[in-house]
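Quick note —
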Amino acid sequence: MSAFWTSVTWNAMAGAYPGRAGSRPTIDGRRAYRGHVPDLRFYFDPACPFAWMTSKWVRTVQRRRAYEVEWRFVSLRLLNAHVDYDAHFPAGYEAGHTAGLRLLRLAARVREEHGPDVVAPLYEALGRLLYERTEQPDEGGSRTRAIATGALEAVGLPARLGTALDDEGLDAVVRAETDEALALTGKDVGTPILHFAPPEGTALFGPVISRLPAEDEAVALWDHVVALAAFPGFAELKRSLRERPQLPSFGVRTGEVGLVEDWHGGSRRLKR
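Predicted structure written out below.
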């Protein structure tokens, strides 16, 4: 491994963080986001399985590296508001993206009433219910409501917050953060979006990963991604071939390799 890779660390990119050396990683939002700027802003849509996989990677690295994450919103449904879903996406994508927007409304209400520190465990609970089981969400609203109820129960929040799913008044909050994320990366992206060392640091779409690395590999991947983000003028590395995520909801078990598919514009290609 070159000296370049071994020398570029989180602190090298973000600058010194006095008093944090060796500190335990935290996702406590009140301490992490109200007293100072977080080390990483992670923009997610619960509807995106790749965002979920990347979030698992970020959490894995947090166990080894002292950095703080703020979890923010980006809606695939709002990002694609101008798109003809029937022409552009495979069947079911509009329902899935709409479900993601409804769950982001829930996250916005939870953050409003209980503070930003609760967003991390809420997203983790939602992701487990959406992707770590073999059941696939249906196209109706009942499944989304059941997932929301289960996630609220898992993090000890009142079930009444579930009314946020249908509160379109919360879309303004989600739209503002979606616009914020796209202002950092440009509009031809999806989820997740990671903003390293905000506000001055680089934001990138990705990394898009289909497998969760082991802890040592996860840390190595982190260092490589941070190094790329720190390089002046770097914009993109890309391939459109993706493995289906190594998640029970996709029928891909740990140790298996998912079917390789060609993706374009945020979905599997409809035509070769």
